[in-house]
Amino acid sequence: MDEERALYIVRAGEAGAIERVLRDYSDKHRATFKFESTDEDKRKKLCEGIFKVLLKDIPTTCQVSCLEVLRILSRDKKVLVPVTTKENMQILLRLAKLNESDDSLEKVSEFPVIVESLKCLCNIVFNSQMAQQLSLELNLAAKLCNLLRKCKDRKFISDIKCFDLRLLFVLSLLHTDIRSQLRYELQGLPLLTQILESAFSIKWTDEYESAIDHNGPPLSPQETDCAIEALKALFNVTVDSWKVHKEVSESHQFRVMAAVLRHCLLIVGPTEDKTEELHSNAVNLLSNVPVSCLDVLICPLTHEETAQEATTLDELPSDKTAEKETVLKSNTMVYNGMNMEAIHVLLNFMEKRIDKGSSYREGLTPVLSLLTECSRAHRNIRKFLKDQVLPPLRDVTNRPEVGSTVRNKLVRLMTHVDLGVKQIAAEFLFVLCKERVDSLLKYTGYGNAAGLLAARGLLAGGRGDNWYSEDEDTDTEEYKNAKPNINLITGHLEEPMPNPIDEMTEEQKEYEAMKLVNMLDKLSREELLKPMGLKPDGTITPLEEALNQYSVIEETSSDTD
Length: 561
Description:
This protein is mainly α. 64% of the residues lie in helices and 4% in strands. Among the domains are: 138 residues, Leucine-rich Repeat Variant (Alpha Horseshoe); 162 residues, no CATH class; 29 residues, no CATH class.
C-alpha cells in the first residue's frame, strides 16, 4: 500500500509532494531489510520512477528523499535486476560528483546528496552482479580515488570520505582486477595511507616515527569510521603484497604504512568497542605487510623518554636494581633501548581475544600469526615477547595449562579442537623458544607439545629449521632444584606416588601383566590401538614400518664396514 501511494505521487511529478511522500516512506521503512514478495513489482516501478525524477531539476532536499528511498529499496536484490542499467548508474555517479573533473566540493548544501548517492552505490554494487560489471566499464574505482583526492585535507566531509572508502572496499573485495588497478595504476597504497594519516592527524618526528600524545583526546566517531574503512580497503589492496613486493620504493611505502599502523595501535577510539574494531583492522592489515618492513613497529627511545627514565632511575637508590628494572618496564615498555609499546598493545589484544573464548579462527589467529612472524624475523621483538609470555620459571607445582597467565592460556590452546588454532598457538611458543624442543618442553610439557613435534618431525628432540642467536636461557634456582622431579609429560612437579605393585605378590604381578598384554593384543587386533614408532627423521609411523627402516639402515652400515 505504501509503495502504491508513493508510486502514484512520484508519477504525478510535483517536487514538493514527492519529497513529502518519500520522506514518510523512508521514515517508516528505515529499518526494513526484508520485503514482501507480493509488492515486488510495485517496488521495481517505484525505483524506475525515482530514477526518472532524479533526471529532473529538483531541489536538493527532494533529491535526498529520492536517494534515501532508493537506498532502502536497493536492499532487495530482486528489485535491482530491471533498474541496474548504465544510464541509472551514471545518474548516481553524477549526483555523487564522481563524474566531475574539476574541484566541485564547494557547496555544503550538496554534501547530503553526495553521501546518499554513495550509500545507494554501495548497496547496488554489493547486491547486483550487473552493477559490478558496469562498475568496471564505468571505471568506478578511478573515479572514487579522484573524489578521495578532492576530500584530502578538507573539513566537514568525513561522511563523503567514509562512504567513498566503503564503496572502494566493496569493489576491491568483489574484483581482483580492481585490486591490481588500485595497487599499481591508481597508486592506492600511498593514497589510502595518506587518508589514514589525515584521520589520525599524524605529526612525523622522523622518517618512520610519529609523535604520540598519550594524554590527547580519543578519535572522534567520524575519524574512527573513516580510518576503519580505509584499513579495510588497504587490506584488499595489499592482500598478496608479501609475495610480490620487490622494489625499494614499495618497501618504503610499506614501512610508512606500518609506521601509521603503529600510531593506530597507540591511540583509542570514542568507545572501547570502536577501539577494538580499529585495532582489529590494523592487525589484519599488518598481516599483509612484508615481515622485513615490520621493524618500524619498534623504535629507539626519544630524547624525552630517555631523559624521563634517567630522572626516574636517578631518584632510586643505587642498590635498588630490581625496582629500577620494574620502573623501566612499566613506564615505557622498553627492551634493549627500544620502545615496545606497539608490541605490548598487540600482546594485550591477543590476550583479550583469548579471553573471549569464541571465534578463535577469525579473531585470534591473525594476531597470533603476526606476532609469530615478527618474533621469527626480529630478535628484539622475540626477546621482549619471550620476557612477557615465557618469563623464567619459578613455580612448577602447577601444570603449564593451569592458571591465568598468558603462558597458561596459550598452552591450553595447544590442545584446542580447532587444528588451525592449536597449530599457530604452538608455533608462536616454539618460535619464542628459538625452535628448541628442550626449551619448549620446559614451558609446555611433552603432552601439550606432542602435536607440534609430531608435525615437525621433532619427537626425538632437536630444533627447527630457522636460525636464532645462540644466547642461552637462564634457569632460576627454583627450577634447577625442582627439575629432577618434574614429570616431562605433564610439565610440572608431582608429589611422589606410592607404587601399586609394591604390595603385590609375584603371582599377582604375573596375573596383572598377562591381563595387560591380552588387553593390548585385543586392541591391536581390532585396530582400536595401533603401535607406532619413530622413523629416523623423527616423524611417527606404524611400528612395523619404523622397525623395517631401522633394519635397512643397520644393514647398510654393516655393508659399508
